[in-house]
């Protein structure tokens, strides 16, 4: 009886936590189906309204900005380019960096790793001015690559890949040497097949980091054709019905990505053994 009560109590705590996390999303979805006047007058709504079609149609046909040239699809495209760029570059650079630190006899490998890890102590917001001046000197203002490069999470990816490589048995490297495999072949035939789950997890995490960027794209882009979805929310109004609809649409791509790769994502981050 006591065990059942404990299990029931544990489930109640879990359900309460899930409700606490999901409730804001449900309120956001419900509010996106109401008129702006109602939201301004009464605040966010918990139950659906009758303006869903009108609000989402307005968002999909949106023409915003000073020149009314930017559309929701354009902002979606910009957000996807930035998020995919951040995720792709971070995954590739982190994978190669960790491979070099673990399998090459670099005299300063340990120092380079900790130096890379130290960049986590310096978030982008703390170095906006110097990063902006560097980006401007390179002629990357109002470019996608200028929005991508400063937001790469190489330190995070390198940490995860390095811990994974250190968990591999030394017999892999010895077998590769006996087979006559060089560094490139060992990387392609051994490392990549064993790292794809961890790489997928890093890709998902860094995709969400790139997707949610607001301050840096706002600072570096003056061209309306470079506006992202997150910035578009400010243009259309956060407290409006269409604004809520745009917020709902903005969370769909990362949500879909997590749902597709959730099994690999949780396995790769929870247990190194699942990568074998």
Give the helix/strand layout.
Blueprint: H1 2-31, H2 36-42, H3 52-60, E1 63-64, E2 70-71, H4 72-103, H5 109-118, H6 128-137, H7 144-148, H8 154-166, H9 170-178, H10 183-211, H11 215-220, H12 229-236, H13 241-260, H14 262-270
Antiparallel strand pairs: 1-2
Structure description:
Strand 1 (63-64) and strand 2 form a beta hairpin. The protein has helices at 2-31, 36-42, 52-60, 72-103, 109-118, 128-137, 144-148, 154-166, 170-178, 183-211, 215-220, 229-236, 241-260, 262-270, and strands at 63-64, 70-71. With 276 residues, it is an all-alpha fold. The radius of gyration is 23 Å and the shape is globular.
What attributes characterize this protein structure?
two-stranded antiparallel sheet, 2 strands, 14 helices, globular, 276 residues, mainly alpha
Structure at a glance:
This protein is mainly alpha-helical and 276 residues long. Helix content is 71%, strand content 1%.
Structural class: mainly alpha
Low-confidence spans: none
- Total number of beta strands: 2
Mean pLDDT: 82
Distance between the termini: 42 Å
The tally of helices reads 14
Percent helix, as a range, is over 70%
Instruction: Please state the CA-atom Rg, rounded to the nearest Å.
Output: 23 Å
Largest sheet: 2 strands, antiparallel
Q: What order do the helices and strands follow?
A: HHHEEHHHHHHHHHHH
Shape: globular
- How big a fraction of the residues is strand? under 5%
Placed side by side, the strands forming the largest sheet appear as 1-2
């Amino acid at each position: 009886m006591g065990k059942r009560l404990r299990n029931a109590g544990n489930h109640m705590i879990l359900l309460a936590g899930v409700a606490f996390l999901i409730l804001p999303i449900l309120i956001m979805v419900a509010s996106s189906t109401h008129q702006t006047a109602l939201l301004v007058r009464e605040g966010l709504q918990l139950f659906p309204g009758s303006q869903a079609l009108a609000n989402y149609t307005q968002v999909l046909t949106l023409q915003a900005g000073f020149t009314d040239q930017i559309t929701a699809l354009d902002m979606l495209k910009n957000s996807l380019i930035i998020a995919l760029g951040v995720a792709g570059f971070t995954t590739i650079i982190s994978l190669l960096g960790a491979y070099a630190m673990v399998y090459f006899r670099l005299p300063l490998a340990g120092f380079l790793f900790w130096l890379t890890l130290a960049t986590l102590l310096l978030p982008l917001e703390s170095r906006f001015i110097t990063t902006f001046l560097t980006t401007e000197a390179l002629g990357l203002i109002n470019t996608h690559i200028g929005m991508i490069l400063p937001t790469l999470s190489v330190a995070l990816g390198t940490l995860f890949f390095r811990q994974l490589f250190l968990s591999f048995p030394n017999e892999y490297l010895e077998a590769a040497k006996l087979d006559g495999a060089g560094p490139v072949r060992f990387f392609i035939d051994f490392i990549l097949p064993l790292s794809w789950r961890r790489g997928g997890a890093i890709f998902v995490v860094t995709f969400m980091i790139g997707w949610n960027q607001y301050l840096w794209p706002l600072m570096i882009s003056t061209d309306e054709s470079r506006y992202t979805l997150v910035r578009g929310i400010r243009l259309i109004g956060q407290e409006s019905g269409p604004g809520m609809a745009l917020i709902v649409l903005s969370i769909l791509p990362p949500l879909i990505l997590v749902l597709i790769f959730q099994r690999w994502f949780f396995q790769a981050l929870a247990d190194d053994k699942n990568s074998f």
